[in-house]
Amino acid sequence: MGKGMRAGKVKKMQQPSQQQQLQALTRMQSMMEEKQAEIEAKEVTTTSGGGAVSVTVTGKKEVKEIVLSKDVVDPDDIEMLQDLIMVAVNEGLRQIDEISNEEMSKVTGGLNIPGLGF
Q1: In this structure, what is the dihedral angle of CA atoms 104, 106, 109, 111, given to the nearest 10 degrees?
Q2: Rounded Cα distance, 87 and 106, in Å
Q3: How far is 59 from 37, CA to CA, in rounded Å?
Q4: pTM score, two decimals?
Q5: What pairs with residue 67 in β-bridges?
Q6: How far apart are CA 92 and CA 100, in angstroms?
Q7: Closest CA relative to residue 104, chosen from 52, 32, 41, 54
Q8: Which of 18, 47, 49, 111 has its CA 20 to 30 A from that of 76?
């Protein structure tokens, strides 16, 4: 032990006050709202069937556009077209979720905050 130190004596670290904690949380909430607005403004376009189906999904998880190649429209095989649309939509939603998770973790520093959906 160093000079002047006694066994069992622990130096206390100063804890932030409740007001400081509240201010930090308020700043984080504001940053999260800004990030959410940025995410909602984003769009991703995904394809399936080698580009036969193209789907654009917004950051609000809304399908904005579906483009079908004339070659993929076969009245005798509607199930294939439905599958291709479903694959493209699901991939777009997956990419938006990934973008949202990445952007929000930048704000929260990787904290897992329950109820925030990321």
Answers
A1: 20
A2: 29
A3: 9
A4: 0.71
A5: 54
A6: 12
A7: 32
A8: 47
In the chain, at which residue ranges do the beta strands (DSSP E only) sit? 43-48, 53-58, 63-68
Alpha-carbon torsion (28, 30, 32, 35), positive or negative:
negative
Of 95, 89, 88, nearest in space to 51 by CA = 88
What is the amino acid identity at position 33?
A: E
Rg (CA), the chain: 25
Q: Which two tokens stand for residue 21?
A: 């904690």
Q: ∠66-67-70 over CA atoms, to 5°?
A: 140
**DSSP 8-state assignment for residue 7:** T
The pLDDT tens digits for 8-66 are 666 666 787 888 888 888 988 899 999 999 999 999 999 999 999 999 999 999 999 99
Pick from 71, 70, 58: nearest CA to 100: 58
* Token pair 């006694």 in the structure block, residue: 6
